[in-house]
Known about the structure:
Helix content of chain B: 25-40%
Number of helices of chain B: 16
Distance between the termini of chain B: 84 Å
Number of strands of chain A: 0
Radius of gyration of chain B: 27 Å
Shape of chain B: globular
Number of strands of chain B: 14
Order of helices and strands of chain A: HHHHHHHHHHHHHHHHHHH
Largest interface: A-B, 18 and 21 residues
Largest sheet of chain A: none
Strand content of chain B: 15-25%
CATH architecture of the largest domain in chain B: 3-Layer(aba) Sandwich
Strand order of the largest sheet of chain B: 8-7-6-12-13-14
Helix content of chain A: 55-70%
CATH class of the largest domain in chain B: Alpha Beta
Number of helices of chain A: 19
Distance between the termini of chain A: 18 Å
Oligomer: heterodimer
Strand content of chain A: under 5%
Order of helices and strands of chain B: HHEHHEHEHHHHHHEHEHHHEHEEEEEEEE
Amino acid sequence: MQFVSFAFLLLLPVAAIINFIIPRKFRYIWLLVISIAFYLSIDLKAAAVMAGTIVVTYISALLIDKVSGEGSEKRPKSALVILAVSVILEIAAMLIFRSGKIMGAIGISFYMLKSVGYLVDVYRGDVAAEKNFCKLALFVSFFTQVISGPIERAGNMLPQFSYPVTVDFDRMRDGFLQILWGYFLKLVIADRLAIFVNNVYDDPALVGGTIVAIATFFYSFEIYCDFAGYSAIAIGVSRILGIDVMKNFDSPYMAKSIAEFWRRWHISLSTWLRDYIYIPLGGNRKGTVRKYLNVLIVFAVSGIWHGSALTFLVWGLLHALYQIIGFITMPVRDKIVAVLKIDREGLSHRTVKTIVTFLLVNLAWVFFRAPTLEQAILIIKRSFEFTPWVFTDGGLFMMGLSQGSFNVGIAGIALLITMDILAFNGVEIRDRIIRQAIWYRWIIMIAGILAISIFGIWGAGYNASSFIYQQF
Amino acid sequence: MKIRFVNILKVLAFTCVASLCVYGATVVLRDKDSEYKYADFFDRADQIDVLFIGSSHVINAINPVVLYGEQGITSYNMGGHGSIMQSTYWELMEALQYCNPKCVVVDTYMLQKDYKYLDEMNDDYSDEDRASSIAQLHLNMDCWPLNKLKVAAVNDLIKDEEIRKQFYEPFYVYHHRWDVLKSNDYKTLTGDGDRNHFFGAEMRYGIELTPGIYPNPEDDNGLGGDTIGEEYLRKIIDECQGRGIDVIVTFLTCSASTDDKRAVDSARIICDEYDVPFVNMQEMGVVDLYTDLNDTGHMNANGAIKATKCIGEAIAELGKCQDHRGDPAYDYWQQRAEKFYGEIYDIALSSDSVYQELNYLAGADSVGTILYINDGSQAFGDNEMQRLIHNFTVTPTIYHTDGPYIMIYDPVSKKVYEASGTEVLDGIDTSFGTIHYQPVEHLFRLLYTDEDPETNLLYDDAKIDYDIQIITYDAESGEILSHNYFKSYGSNYTKG
Lengths: 472, 496
């Protein structure tokens, strides 16, 4: 069962109603039942890997807690050994099963990071080891996050399982709107752009340069809409079930620097890397060179986490390089701004920074999407070949999208950018909609449902498990 | 508690409104082929006495409006494009939910097909064939509501569970039609969508000039009796006989391959087993292979008229089907029949093809024809042209003349008059008037009536280069309906 399936759409209301009816203190059991059923329906064999992860995480955390003693600030070496062994075990399992050589385990990159984060938190004393096995199992396997995150923290999730909030009508509406937006991003924009991108990236040598550039531009929005769409559905479903899940995206393409981009893109992973790798390595507290080295390490890890291909490593290192160059050139840039008397807060300056940041991110995505480094370099080269006649000779519509479908994709991107600009400026769209009169809300919701049903890429021939991040 | 109740009501109301909107979208977006074909079936199911089932050969060869016009028998053409016997069987089962026919006519084209699932077929077929087969099944299936029978049908015809979904709920495959919507798609919302005027039949108006002739099989043992097609033909006959419905098995005229002829033999063997009549039109000579086919497989409208009359006689012989002509409850059928004949003459008279025009005029009851071909015309060396003229005259004159040549067909007297070379026609009585014809010289000839002796109908300065003229007139009023000129280039003709 996938988020994009009729089975899921039919079962969600049933799950929500039962969750609503049963006593709050037992809700975590119901959520665990759903989570187990959800995972089993996707991958029966891989459930054994997840069960093993849960058992190892549960026992290791209890042991760390036990050997550490109550109230002790300083952890004994035995706790560190237990942590190290369990983390190595889990990371090794992640690398082995993710490669698919023995067997694949869907979502392992996500729930393994959750487990490792939890163990480190227990070791640090930030959270107590969970004694209720079911709650820990639910934390690791919570069905809205198990396939593609967000990579949640135990400190946020475990208390919610113990003390779930009341699911009121506003929460339902908010969750519903978020789910609708998620499906819109995924089915109307991401999967539509994917058709164009796949056609071009399958053989970039055969198409005009401008089309290749447009495909790369589209890919930036495809991956954003795909992943942010999934996250929105996950967050919305969780909200309907009474669980608040962390935000995963915050208008990332509005960022004015690469560092800011990473504060807005895949936030749950970025903060995980920050908290469990960058800061333990010393962060920016141990000198400039060490800071640069730490940035390189963190982004190399991020690249490797996304996949074993060299292209992912290059993608990660490119982002590290952007930031290091940004740090190095900062005095020069400051000087230029001062000499030219540029208003840093002016709209034009902010817009230029946003566009430059987007173009840098866009360039890096080529390595993320291309199957090989050679192909990535070919795509970049082709992108600079100017063939503007594709706009008028119909070539643009030979890449799998009719003119109408292409226009829907462009309209979708325009809507997304508008929403992001509003969100970036502090306008809470969902909140605004919910505060409107009932007829207004209904029009928006029904328009959303119709837009997804009609303009969405689904149905015959559609692969429901095509979320990009599901492969990681 | 009150707030909770109000909220539940709001959720229910929203669900209803949203569902209604989505339903509206499914109506607008769904492909209209199936409901176009079956709209009259659902509206008049209680009046239908005969069902025609089979492939596209049936769709093009049997015209229920002709059957009604000739015999007063009500029928519906349930043929499906690419419909093999198992699809045909399920089509019948679906139809029998709505009507109680007295007779079922099943055509056996593609009886030799020996694969179970349309999405699997066998190694002889390409992926495009499979895709086409699935797409064609939608015509048969989309109109039927989802119920146990439809699920059984889809499961029996389609192996892939993912593909089955598009038949359970066609929106699954049609939601992407938003960029090809036409006005008719929206009209369906108000029930005003277009519908098939021929009770499921589709008429084609071309002519296949070179149908292939294939050798007969070495024996008459047929296909062996064990093909999936044969299995389902037996099921169809069993089902009909179990319900007390008469069955007629047919093989409609086409450019039959050797395999097709084996299927004919098998159909005959099965008919003998079950003691049901087998109308093998292939051997009856009712339909002219050279003038009545639209392509090698399908009949044109002229062929359909002949084939329908022939099958109509076989149905009438069974004696169960009533003549409904004159019954006010069946006026709709009469109107459709009249409309068809009106349309077919319009098509004939406005056609750019001299072949097409002559082909449809040959069978006309209400339109008279005057055909003139100048001497030296290349039409005299064109076998197809000669064959079409021979359809009017049944004499060999056209085969032995270099022109000039004139042929007058008067539908009121049912007489045909011919003259060639220096021959004249003098005082021919027709509903057009009393006609006189006299050749004078290469570019000049006379054709006039006593009623209007000043008008020479076969001379026009502006059309002097055109070697063929066809004048048509209304059989009742004598009014000229059309006067078409053609110029021959070998066997190609240009309309002037």
